[in-house]
Amino acid sequence: MQDFNSPTIENVLLVSIDCLREDWLQRGISEGIVPTLERLTTDGLYFNQAFTVANTTDPSLTSFMTASYPHTHGVQENGWGLDESVPVLAESIQDVGHETFGVVSVDHLSDEHSGLGRGFDEYCDGGGSYDTLYPILSRIYDTKTFNTVFGAVKDIGTEQWNLKSLLRQTGLIRLHCRTAKSVTQDAVDQLDRVDGSFFGWVHYFDMHEPRNYDRNDLEAHDEYTAAMKLVDGYVQQLLDELEKRNLREETLVVLTADHGEALDDHGYTGHGRQLYDEELHVPLAFHHPDIEAETVSDQVRTIDIAPTVLDLLDVEVPDEFEGRSIRANDDGTPPGDRDAFLTAYPEFAESIGLRTPGWKLIREGSDHELYDLSTDPNEENDLVAAGETDGTPYEVLREKLQAWDSAGNEVTDQDVDADTQEMLKDLGYVD
Predict the structure, then answer these.
(1) Domain co-membership, 116 together with 263
(2) Does 297 lie in the same domain as 348?
(3) Is it true that the peptide bond before 210 is cis, omega within 30 degrees of 0?
(4) Residue 418 maps to which CATH number?
(5) Last residue of a domain, one of 294, 326, 358
(6) Alpha-carbon 347 to chain mean position
(7) Does 336 fall in a domain?
(8) What own/partner pairs with CB < 8 Å and gap ≥ 24 does 262-269 have?
(9) Is 204 found in the same domain as 247?
(10) Where are the alpha helices (DSSP H) in 51-153?
(11) Backbone angles phi, psi at 215, to 5 degrees
(12) Is 415 exposed, middle or buried (0-12, 13-18, 19+ CB in 10 A)?
């Protein structure tokens, strides 16, 4: 593996795409419908075994901006907000003189709700321009309170006719995010503003349900694929703008996703509920004119992105970061496999897990699932349920997962505040 540190890397543009799972990206590449994402992954340094450590947006993005697990940074659910004491990637880059900007696409990623705007000279989150019920209510109440209350009432009724589906059918919560067009324009405006070395983060939400896509594409593609195709076009527009400003030659483009998406895998569509690879396996590419194309199959984690970026910029990595740089070792070999601890969305399931290159252990409550990924990559044969754990690392993995979970108990137990408790009591959901 080449050492991809280059003296011409002056700028970094981090592009994250909500819900983009790695295997469907590869399917889109094989069908020739995502030429921009194909170029970033096949012409750059591509880690094809990259995994997020959390399967929902805020916990995941906070994890790779802080290079730490949700156990450590404390953001277990959307809108919980990052404590100011936790170091973030943008601050480290800002401290060495780079201009910084972030452009995000959904209300709960606003600095007000997420705390992720720290370290950015400009943080574009829509400025309250959303016009639907979800963001209106989330601005009346803090996001944690709103999610708690909405989570309690959204499934009232039948599966087909619950409150959540009714609100979506009426459009009241359908468009609580900004489109790729709006996000790209804000990013272009920021490129016009910067005058010197920069770090930019751009997050696209269009692949998240409800998906944004060109309806003409539905004749040939499903909604998820059509949304992926749409985002690909806007990423290309963003890269074209770098070219127009003669910035492309000195800009490292990092492509990744916050999490994947179950698409009727394991009987589920969505994300946050399960810790199977369809929700966790994400693309990770580093693209720069001076970086030779190479695919690396060592298992890495999204918490390794921030220390890698700082390493490439020769910026000191905060001691608090749990992730590690994935540059080549001194002898040119790949960085080596890293175990990934996994966290599901607590609102859906109290599940945690451990993924090694060959094994997956999932714990929900007191129950465990074990998968031999070398022979069962689709995670269809639970060895615990089948009584086939002899000769496997089951006990070792279970002890390791328990030790990790125990170490984080102090930061994961976030009590519901008194106001939220009172609201739930008035609604009849708690005694």
Answers:
(1) yes
(2) no
(3) yes
(4) 3.30.1120
(5) 326
(6) 17
(7) no
(8) 263/24, 263/224, 266/379
(9) yes
(10) 57-66, 70-73, 89-95, 111-114, 133-140, 143-153
(11) -60, -25
(12) exposed
Residue 108 and residue 220 share a domain: yes
Q: How far apart are CA 186 and CA 180, in angstroms?
A: 10
* CA 343 – CA 359 distance, rounded (Å): 16
pLDDT in tens, 5-15: 555 799 999 99
In a domain, 98, yes or no: yes
**Residue 346: domain span:** 342-427
pTM comes to: 0.86
DSSP 8-state code for residue 204: E
Report if residue 251 sits inside a domain: yes
Give dist(CA 213, CA 263) in Å, integer: 17
8 A C-beta contact, residue 202 and residue 15: yes
- Residues 181-221 have pLDDT tens digits of 999 999 999 999 999 999 999 999 999 987 899 999 999 99
| Total domain count, the chain | 2
The alpha carbon of 219 is separated from its chain's Cα centroid by a whole number of angstroms, namely 29
d(CA 58, CA 283) in angstroms, rounded, equals 18
Contacts of 114 (CB under 8 A, 6+ apart): 58, 61, 62, 75, 79, 81, 82, 108
Tell me: the pLDDT tens digits for 236-276?
999 999 999 999 999 999 999 999 999 999 999 999 999 99
Q: Do 248 and 392 fall within a single domain? A: no
Judgement on whether residues 96 and 168 belong to the same structural domain of the protein: yes
Give the separation between CA 383 and CA 361, rounded to whole angstroms.
10
Are the C-beta atoms of residues 99 and 196 closer than 8 Å to each other? yes
Q: Which two tokens stand for residue 343?
A: 């966290």
Cα(359)–Cα(371) distance, integer angstroms:
6
Check: CB of residue 182 under 8 Å from CB of residue 189: no
Q: Are residues 182 and 209 in the same domain?
A: yes
**306 and 352 both lie in a single domain:** no
> Would you tell me how many other CB atoms lie within 10 Å of the CB of residue 71?
22
Of the residues 268, 294, 326, which one is the last residue of a structural domain?
326
What does the radius of gyration of the chain's CA atoms come to, in whole angstroms?
A: 21
